[in-house]
Amino acid sequence: MDNGGEYYIKFLGGDVGAFDELVKRYQNEMILFIAQYTGDCQIAEDISQDVFVKLYANKPRYAPLSSFKTWLYTIAKHESLSFLRRNKRDVSLSVLDSQAVVEDWLKPILREKRKIALHLALSELEPEYRRLLYLSYFEKLSACEIARIEGKTTRYVSVKLYNAKQSLKRMIEKGDKYEILRTEFE
Predict the structure, then answer these.
(1) Domains, the chain
(2) Tens-digit pLDDT profile for residues 120-152
(3) Whether the predicted model's global pTM rises above the 0.70 cut
(4) What is the dihedral of CA 89, 92, 97, 98, to 10 degrees?
């Protein structure tokens, strides 16, 4: 069980401070993950807060069959999709929207030029590739954990991750604006 699971179990036992620690640990990254669905960081922030409010109020049962992060991101994914269904939002991000997000909101979180360049490159990929690579590169999740979050088989995710990495590699090799990333893919 990862530390998040331990904190959640402590929270379920009455330790409110453990819940605060969960929010500190996971909120920013979860917002970035949710933004892959919504295309809007403000909406992603609202959905993230909704996820934590539901955890606090409903105290859903966590069985450590997977990591806490995988379980939490699965909840975040479902909340994001529910929001999109309710509001009939388009899931895709335009390149310009993604660049504005990086410049205005992600920069303080990502800090490193390589991560910013990688995020911009990801924004040009199709939404499924973008989500899978985000979870793999930024969240450091395995194909198995990503499969649980996405509700797909591990084989499917592995193949899609390979294809996504190949698409990203071709994009980086072609574009001068991603020169800073080339050494990672050579």
Answers:
(1) 1-91 (1.10.1740.10), 112-186 (1.10.10.10)
(2) 778 888 999 999 998 998 888 999 999 999 999
(3) no
(4) 130
